Amino acid sequence: MRSIDFNDLPRTTRERFVRSLLSDAPASRPICQRVSRQRSPLAWYLLLAVAIGSLAALAAFRFGAVEAAVQDRRLLGGYVAASAALGLALSMLARRRALRGSLPFAPGVYVFPLDLVDARTRQLELYSLSELMSLDPVHHSERGKYTHSSLWLIFPTKSFVFEARGRYAADTQLAAVQKARENLAAAIHRGALGELTSLDPFADARARNFEPASDHGLLARGRPVWTRSIWAITVIAGLTLGVGAWRVRNWQSDVWAFSRLRARPEVAPIEAYVAGGGLRAAEAQADLLPRARLADATRAPDGAARAAAIEHFLATHPGTSAEADARAALGEAIHAEFARESTVSGLRALVARWPNARDVPAANAKIRDLYRETRGDFQKRANVADKSVVPVVEALLAYAEEGAAPIDVRFRRRSAASLAAADGLLAKGLLDDDGPAAGGNAEVSGHLGGDDASRREKALVVGLQRTFRAIFPADVLALRLGEPIDAPAAIPGTKPLAEVAAPTIVIDYELGWAGTTYVARDSRRRYLGVFVRFDLTVQVPGEARVLAFATKVEPPESFPFEALPDDPVFETLLPPPSGAPDAGADGRVYAVMLLRAFDQMAVRMQPHFFDTRTAATPAPEDPSAAAP
Fold first, then answer.
1. Of 191, 266, 284, 434, which sees the most CB atoms within 10 A?
2. Smallest Cα–Cα separation from 155: which of 123, 100, 111, 103?
3. Cβ–Cβ contacts within 10 Å for residue 164, how many?
């Protein structure tokens, strides 16, 4: 076997070889040939389409999703595989284009009278027919029917096979090769190889013992080096393009997700972005998230709630980029609360809570205006029949305007012995005029005894505060529950306390049985009717006169026991939970009785303080009022 570069052959040999492959003359053309044909590129185009589609699908998967802006590394293998397939497909298609036309002849294996020439590449391999070891024809059939024949040429180092369609063609080629072999052997034996020069396309090269020539003319192009490294290109493309595509996709996805968060910052999506490992998670944590939480805080319905939410934000997010905006929003929320407030209590609460706010001076001025308006309105509607009303109320307003502590309301509790006595009569059945109650009897002393006094007094203070608010809408008088009074009651018309350091309201009250009973419609339990006697006195330091008011409230003919009132005073009167089955229901019923009595006291007290011809109608119940 001899190997030689096509371009090293003499020019005449190169041209003769190419002409012989195209010749129709039997003496010049190959005895048999197997031309190499390129396979269809369809498979590589399909692989290219699948690779591009896979990369597009991987890149589009949850692209721009704030909770998964950056894909997990587990998907990186898919990018590498798809990129490797892309590199392989492109490399093979490029290789086909690079190899096409690189040889000035059709690549293949050709049998000439002297040699078998393997010309599938630029490097030609010549196998002398004198070295042919075996020449074997094989005829193929399928289901007993002839299909084609194969002609095997076996040399010491390599074998070649040629296909023939038809027995005649196979036999003809076999005979021609056999004859050429015999002629070559005879010429070699005679030493007259030159006799076959006309049949040998390589005669000129053989004459110079195939020494390399440097002739110009018809030449083969070199095969690009990269075409020998397709698999290396595939691996490199998979790693570089795969990792690069994964990174570029994550970068663009993160840009898209972050722009959405910046355009519409909301807490939950930003937290999801940070938890999902976004590329700008630190910036989102430090800037976008505080701003989103600040936006949530500023959505509170009113100024006070908004200010509280913003203060909480400042306390939990100190030193963030949104701090300046938060402080500006806090000032606006406080101003909105200031503009909304129309009562002294509300304005004072604002000043106490935000003493450094820019609205504090205006709030103090507004408080003074409210007192001035309240004092002028009171002077127009005051009860001048009682000479103590105007000076005592003026003193109360003056004290309250100074911003001192709320006015103490102190109670002196009188004995409720009649309640225990009535319980005894109830237990003996002496009050069952219309027969025993089907639901049993509800004793009163266990619900309105001494243990419940503090709850009753807190509720009474709230009711009294509401009474003053009905007359003074600006809520200029603040009340609070003071210490109970243990000293005996004073002589009527005199001061209830020897000395007071601040205006004080003293209430002597007594709970007793009114001599009536009630039977509830639903539970059929019997309850005792309770009266409440109030003696109220207002005492002011340095004022000789006192403002006194007394009334006794009897229970009405019927109570709406079934419909419990939605009233903060009633909530204060409710007893604590008890283990007794009916204790809770009984406590609520007696709480309703006391609530109605307190309401009646407020109604009766107004004409004593204010002229009935000009006094305002009591304000509706204020569910927002809190017990002191």
1. 284
2. 111
3. 19
pTM of the model: 0.57
d(C-alpha 206, C-alpha 180), whole Å? 18
CB 218 within 8 A of CB 9: no
d(C-alpha 185, C-alpha 125), whole Å: 20
Highest mean pLDDT among 63-72, 239-248, 306-315 belongs to 239-248
pLDDT for 366 beyond 70: yes
Cβ neighbors of 517 (< 8 A, separation 6 or more) are: 426, 431, 526, 527, 528, 529
The first and second tokens of residue 146, run together, are 């002839």
What DSSP assignment string belongs to 301-360? SSHHHHHHHHHHHHHHSTT-TTHHHHHHHHHHHHHHHHHH--SHHHHHHHHHH-TTSTTH
Q: What is the pLDDT of residues 160-207, one digit of tens each?
A: 999 998 888 999 999 999 999 999 999 988 888 888 888 899 999 998
> Terminus-to-terminus CA distance in the chain, angstroms?
117
Backbone angles phi, psi at 117, to 5 degrees: -110, 115
What is the distance between the alpha carbons of residues 517 and 591, in angstroms, rounded to a whole number? 15
397-to-342, 372, 478, 546, 612 alpha-carbon distances in Å: 17, 10, 10, 15, 21
Q: Work out the widest C-alpha separation in the chain, in whole angstroms.
A: 168
CA distances from 479 to 376, 409, 460 (A): 22, 7, 11
Alpha carbon distance 7, 158 (integer Å) = 24
For residue 151, list its beta bridge partners: 137, 162
Length of the chain in terms of residues written? 628
**What is the DSSP pairing of strand 159-164 with strand 145-154?**
antiparallel
Q: Are 591 and 458 in contact (CB under 8 A)?
A: no
Token pair, residue 275, equals: 């938890």
Cα 535 to its chain centre, rounded Å, is 62
Q: Please tell me the distance from the alpha carbon of residue 354 to that of residue 331, in angstroms, as a whole number.
A: 10
Alpha-carbon distance of 131 to 265, in angstroms, equals 85
Nearest to 148 by CA among 134, 178, 168: 168
Cβ–Cβ < 8 Å for 561, 589 = yes
The four Cα atoms 257, 260, 264, 265 give a dihedral, to 10 degrees, of 20
- Compute, in degrees rounded to 10, the torsion defined by CA atoms 283, 284, 288, 290: -90
Beta carbons of 207 and 196 less than 8 angstroms apart: no
Tell me the pLDDT tens digit for each residue of 521-570. Answer: 878 888 888 888 888 888 888 887 888 888 888 887 776 655 556 666 66
